[in-house]
Amino acid sequence: MQTLAVRIWRGGADGDFHRYDVPRRDSQTVLDVVTHVQRVIDPTLSYRFSCRVGMCGSCAMTVNGVARWTCRTHVSKVAVNDTLELAPLSNLPIVKDLTTDMTVFFDKWASARGQFKGDKTRADDFANVVPETPARKAADAAIECIGCGVCYASCDTVSWRPDYLGPAALNRAWSLVNDIRDTSQNERLRAIAGDAGCHACHTHTSCAERCPKSLSPTAGISGLKKLAARAAIRGELD
Predict the structure, then answer these.
(1) pTM (two decimals)
(2) I want to staple 169 with a disulfide (CB 3.0 to 4.6 A). Which of 40, 108, 128, 205 is the partner?
(3) Model confidence pLDDT, tens digit, residues 20-42
(4) Domain at 3-100, CATH homologous superfamily
(5) How far is 219 from 217, CA to CA, in rounded Å?
């Protein structure tokens, strides 16, 4: 039987790679490989997954140096000479093995005012949002983020500047500033217009290239830069 030579990061930040030989199978995903190691070879291996169908984003890790989700990444697409190297996501603290602490990632969503805030109650009628409007289309283009952290791990600006809000948080802000029902627009623009906000983006487009949902945080960040500049001219960011 053909095998894969798999190097997996073990331990914390000061850990190292351990090698495992895993049977090669048809239609095998990277997550299948990690699951085989944990269930058959070494039950102490730590990793994170949930849905296995590309919905939750929790299985993301670094595969041969590139941040990817693993449940939808086939070994045949990424293995080099029947070898794989698996590591935790970059730019996040390592908890153990392939598991990272996502706290700072989601804290930045909160810092970017990534929560919807409306003025309606359950007693009110539903808001009428016209699908064809430019604002609704802009929100639709950003709303499918699954919070996997691939863009954050791929962002060089986050590596250089740890306080940078990052592409996922700013993508979320972009979806909300285009939601006509939201009532905290100026507060959100003030939050993302600071030194560690949208203007810190260097437009490397790594986030858009790596996003497993084919979103473009770079485009949303560019939109936020324009909105923040207009708000500043109007004196709304004071």
Answers:
(1) 0.94
(2) 108
(3) 999 999 999 999 999 999 999 99
(4) Beta-grasp domain (3.10.20.30)
(5) 5
